[in-house]
Model the fold of this input.
Amino acid sequence: MRIAVLSRNADLYSTKRLVEASELRGHEVEVIDHLKCTIVMEKNRPSIIYKGRNLDDFDAVIPRIGASVTFYGSAVVRQFEMMKVFTAVESQALIRSRDKLRSLQILSRAGLGLPKTVFTNYSRDTDDILNAVGGAPVIIKLLEGTQGLGVVLAENQKAAASVIEAFHGLKARVIVQEFVKEAGGADIRAFVVNGKVVGAMKRQAKEGEFRSNLHRGGSSSIIKLKRSENAAAILAAKKLGLSVAGVDMLQSKRGPLILEVNSSPGLEGIEKATEIDIAGKIIEFLEANTKKPTKRIQKDKINA
Ligand code: ADP
Ligand code: MG
Done:
């Protein structure tokens, strides 16, 4: 099969590992910078031009789209979908997962545990907002932040009110969330591929920090998930329509609380912590979805 890894940087750990895992399994693979793709639309012939060439010979793409280029990146993924190329992450699911508010609305309706969260339209009633989540300390998050940037812990009511006002003054949209102190600066990342958790790690924030992101100096270790955590991760990925996802959860007395679901989860932390070939699992998922159906599958279908 011919695989395109949509990535801006061929030297990134995740990109290199996906290339390596593809080659190991006998596939042809190429790293394509999605920002250098030109999308061409004409009657019945959607196409993509890349460095003067028509990208018409791929069987599958693996999107690794950074948060800052979601709009263009997802348009490129959608174009591949129009060209009937299989994608590890669908464009709609990619866009959905990048909006923390939309994701939390979907997860809450699915009956999944999450920290109590409020969202308002630049309201000046900060007391109402804070009371709705049980008062300070609270977490205030930019709707489109990532890697822990844009996540603030406000320890008391006054600090929380000023931070909310400051963000609102900048016309930055934020959610306000109960601070789950008992998580102790740790969270769990469950890596889901094709409806199964293929690896999980616990991330611990560095001393004096509440954000466990590895980019913020957190450290990671392998963890065996409880049954409830495993089930929550699988359901969250499913509800957001993601076949490849990094589901982040806090451990609490009420069970797992989902923080977010990442659609381009990094491979370095999870592969190093678990020593599992996660890149290989992603390639196997592509193989299962691009192969011509075998006779046995066809027969099963007829029986059904
Ligand atoms: P980002 O997209 O920037 O990673 P997250 O929502 O995942 O934003 O938050 C970053 C980190 O901050 C989490 O991994 C977790 O360690 C900590 N955190 C986030 N929300 C809460 C919360 N409500 N209570 C306690 N810790 C939190
Ligand atoms: Mg996160």
Remarks:
- Confidence is low (pLDDT under 50) at residues 293-304.
- The radius of gyration is 21 Å.
